[in-house]
Amino acid sequence: MSNIEQKKVLIALDYDNESAALAFVSQLSPDECRLKVGKEMFTYFGPQFVKKLVDLGFDVFLDLKFHDIPNTVAKAVTAAAELGVWMVNVHASGGTEMMSKAKEALSKYGDKAPLLIAVTVLTSMDQAQLSKLGIDKTPQEQVLYLAKLAKESGLDGVVCSAQEAETLKAQLGNEFKLITPGIRPAGSDAGDQKRIMTPAKAIEAGSDYLVIGRPITKAEDPAKALRDINASIS
Ligand SMILES: O=c1ccn([C@@H]2O[C@H](COP(=O)(O)O)[C@@H](O)[C@H]2O)c(=O)[nH]1
Question: Which pathway does it serve (predicted)?
């Protein structure tokens, strides 16, 4: 398996203990995965933690899902770029002006700019939860609608579930990146995830990157769990 194929897995480092997270990371190579830092670890351990991972040579996806007025989000993604992260995200429901301003703010970093992607419909949401929000569309329709706005705004891709990947690749083209959480190896616990798929099926459907947390970090042997997943998608 080439390094490029191996690096399709983005491990969600959702730990409340920095030493435990770093002990796990010390078993990994930047050649076999990328790392995702989300709201929990960022809130506990801050930008210094992100910097540590970047300095260890890992590509880091800073998953803070910014959602605010255009000026604030443009400044927030700039702060992310200053940390040297590989990817950062905003919520597509923040609108096209917000997304375009964020993308524009990153242009000064040239080819060092992090990829900018937009969250569409959280993978923990199903049809019933969308309806409760007053959205009268299927998750598939709503994801496609928001992904089109993200593409129009110049973003590099979206966060969606692998269940929407085939449609999005067909409608938005191969270059537009699909980052898919809600990945569950066969037999593993779905937890709070609703729109799920196995790693191999997700890649087959068109996912570019798989976000995987608990199936790896809560496994008896997390490093082996990653190796097994990488083998299953090679
Ligand atoms: O729609 C989304 C957007 C982000 N996430 C994040 O991905 C990981 C998934 O972790 P698992 O343990 O594999 O469920 C987690 O950090 C979420 O915040 C998502 O799940 N869905």
Answer: Pyrimidine metabolism; UMP biosynthesis via de novo pathway; UMP from orotate: step 2/2
Asked if residue 122 has its Cβ within 6 Å of ligand 1, the reply is yes
> What H or E segment, with its residue span, contains residue 59?
none
Spatial CB neighbours of 109, under 8 Å, sequence gap ≥ 6:
81
Helix (H) or strand (E) holding 169: helix 165-172
What tokens were used for 5? 């194929």
Contact 63, 89 (CB under 8 A): yes
The count of other CB atoms within 10 Å of the CB of residue 18 is 16
pTM over 0.95: yes
| Complete domains list, the chain, with CATH | 3-226 (3.20.20.70)
Q: Look at the block and give the residue holding tokens 């998608």.
A: 233
63 is catalytic: yes
Sign of the alpha-carbon torsion through 153, 158, 164, 170: positive
Q: Which atom of ligand 1 is nearest to the CA of 191?
A: 14
Q: Give bridge partners of residue 88 from the DSSP assignment.
A: 62, 116
Of the CA atoms within 13 Å of residue 181, those in its CB half-sphere come to 24
Q: Which of 55, 51, 59 is nearest to 4 (CA)?
A: 59
Side chain identity at residue 22, one-letter code: L
The pLDDT tens digits for 37-89 are: 999 999 999 999 999 999 999 999 999 999 999 999 999 999 999 999 999 99
